[in-house]
Each structure stands twice: as C-alpha cells, then as structure tokens.
From TrEMBL:
<feature type="domain" description="N-acetyltransferase">
    <location>
        <begin position="1"/>
        <end position="149"/>
    </location>
</feature>
<dbReference type="InterPro" id="IPR000182">
    <property type="entry name" value="GNAT_dom"/>
</dbReference>
<dbReference type="Pfam" id="PF13508">
    <property type="entry name" value="Acetyltransf_7"/>
</dbReference>
<protein>
    <submittedName>
        <fullName>GNAT family N-acetyltransferase</fullName>
    </submittedName>
</protein>
<dbReference type="InterPro" id="IPR016181">
    <property type="entry name" value="Acyl_CoA_acyltransferase"/>
</dbReference>
Length: 165
C-alpha cells in the first residue's frame, strides 16, 4: 500500500531507509561526494522544509520504501527514491514511481548520479530518457540546489511530457 508520509511521525524511518539503501552508492559515486551517513538528519529536514513530500510503500505495517515528490515552478521533481536493502527487486520502487507520476500535472525531471547504472536503467524502464549534458547542466542549476561537483557527476532524466529547449 502506498500512503503519504506523516513526515514528522515517519522522519526517523525515512532517514533510516535513505541511509540503508544509499549504501549501494558507496564506491560507485565519486569518493568526494560520499559521506556517512549519506544524508544527515539536518539535510533531510531541509529537503522537507523546501517542499519534498515523501510517500511510503507500506506492507504489514512496515515502511519498505520511500520516494519524494517536489512540485517546483513548471516541473515536478522526483527526489530521494529508496527501498530497504532487504526489500529490493520486488517492484516497490516502480509502484512508488507510478503513484508519483500519476500525481504530476507538469513534466517530470529526475536527477541521479551518472554512475548509478541501476537507477538509470530503472528510470528508463519506466519511460524516462536521459537529457543531453548541456540541458542537464542548465536544469540542475535551475531546479536543484546542489554543489558544482555534484552537477558534474549527475544526469537528469525526463518523462515524455518534457520538451527540450
């Protein structure tokens, strides 16, 4: 079952799932971008304050996956898509993504690490396409607040509603 997160009540669980699942990035993303925990509690709080709304995949009263959506200007951003390590490869990410796609009334953009091949494959399988580097650089500066080094090592994917400039 997919439900909107009670971000205050579920905060610790969201934090736990993000940092459990993000271990997949260790040794994949540039070492200068890796930290432990991958996302601090302060950063998670900041993301929520800035408008990231989390949705949970719940089974047997346990949250197994989380995914954020952020409505920003003329686009929808999918943010922080994570499934517990023990619950991967069971369709949870796809169910969460489809829920958030159905909520969007604007083109959807997703940013991820360029070397996270599994994430890129997942999004492509769900109808997203990788945007050209020049467009990616522009979009990351407009819609995300990330360091220059992260811009250099990331990609942006878009759904079919996105019209490249």
């Amino acid at each position: 079952m997919i439900i909107k997160s009670d971000q205050k009540k579920d905060f610790e669980t969201i934090y736990e799932i993000i940092n459990d699942a993000s271990i997949a990035y260790k040794g994949i993303i540039p070492s200068d971008r890796w930290q432990e925990p991958y996302m601090s509690k302060e950063e998670l709080k900041k993301q929520i304050i800035e408008g990231v709304e989390f949705w949970n995949f719940v089974k047997d009263n346990r949250i197994l996956g989380v995914m954020g959506i952020q409505f920003k200007d003329d686009v929808t951003l999918i943010r922080h898509a994570y499934v517990r390590t023990t619950a991967r490869q069971k369709g949870i990410g796809g169910k969460l993504l489809n829920q958030l796609i159905n909520m969007s009334e604007t083109p959807i953009l997703i940013g991820t690490w360029a070397d996270a091949s599994w994430a890129i494959s997942f999004y492509k399988k769900n109808g997203f396409k990788v945007l050209p580097e020049t467009e990616k650089n522009k979009l990351l500066k407009i819609y995300w607040n990330i360091p220059k080094r992260q811009v250099e090592t990331s990609i942006v994917l878009a759904n079919n509603d996105w019209k490249s400039n």
